[in-house]
Amino acid sequence: MSSLEEALSTLLGASVTDLRRVSAGASRETWTFEADGRALVLRRDPPEVPRPVEMRREAECFRACAAAGVPIPTLVAVGDGSDAVGSPYLIMERLDGETLPGRLLRDERWADVRARLPRQFGRVLARIHALDPADVPSLERIDDPVDSLRAQHDAFDEPRPALEAAFRWLSAHPPSGTGSAVVHGDFRNGNLLIDDDGLAAVLDWELAHLGDPREDLGWLCARAWRFGAVEEVGGFGPREELFAGYAEVAGARPDADDVRWWEVYACVHWAVICRIQAERHLGGSERSMEMAVLGRRAVEAEYDALLVLGLVGTELPEVAAAPSSGERPTVDDLLDAIAGAVVDELAPADDRSRYLARVARNGLQIVRRELTLGPELTRRHAECLARAGCADDVELAARLRDGSLDPDDEPVAAAVRSATLSRLALSNPRYVPGGR
Fold it and tell me: Domain DUF6285, which positions (predicted)?
């Protein structure tokens, strides 16, 4: 019996069996197990990065939601990690259902359920936003989300012209009103448990806070959470259904333009989160291949922001690979062989290892594209910068921020597009509709 199994057995006063770590969750560990036959889930902070305040806050959300009729698993235990579990944790009942977006969006098994989900999501979000903040006393209030997000971005001191264009638009077009409510903060496909009746439980409350309730609506509609599907609400259906379900409970229909503002904000927010997660690896607090590869996904969110703002199309630059040295096996041959070994030969049979093998394969593909396509893309981007009157992305980002360049001017817009599309062609060209 492992030390974690022993700790859980002592904590619950039960025999713990079938303890397995699953792939869900980038910021927290997720384990499934049985305690005297009862199916449970452990959510635990990585021991290197304990966050007891956030875990206590999540437990408060569970209790408030259970009292208000928001679908949520039963909370079994919560701890600060001072016991043998080793880091702050929640233990909850394990419900039957599906969370994996690929299955929910594509398997025939869920075809009848998909169309019902956007309206259900709207109803449940309205219930969450009606929670009494006094029932979740540790929630932090975010009074100026744009300033808060910009400060997080600035902490990395890295030029991202697309984000500067998005920040500029967000500041110039604030949404009407400034409502305040309990906000889930990560209500999207992947954090929602679906069963045959539809939405069975809302999971992962670690980003909950007090803020504008429309933030949850914009986050849910962000393209990142459609996982390749077309429909605007998590890939399941139109936002009109989401708004209609929300109005059934809240009594008022959300304004589409306000939700669009929060959708642009969501794109910027996701880009910043990707960079924050990568810093856990780069800064040494948690060495993790998963976090390192996630950092390269920030450019996907930049692309989405430009797409919503109408500043980018759906075409990637065509570029030929750099000539090979002539040595055989080539770089492509070697990386293909390594990726095949990781995915097909070295990965054990458990879900977590299979997931990490796919992450490793994606990382190797990024390396290959950067080696073969990177030099030409860098050269072309330098030409775009020169036409905009900038020496590099640092100058482009700075002048977008100080207002001396306007993203509506075509040479500037072309440089912003190039900064994003060049990096996206390396990190994930298939993210663009029709990408290769």
Answer: 350-431
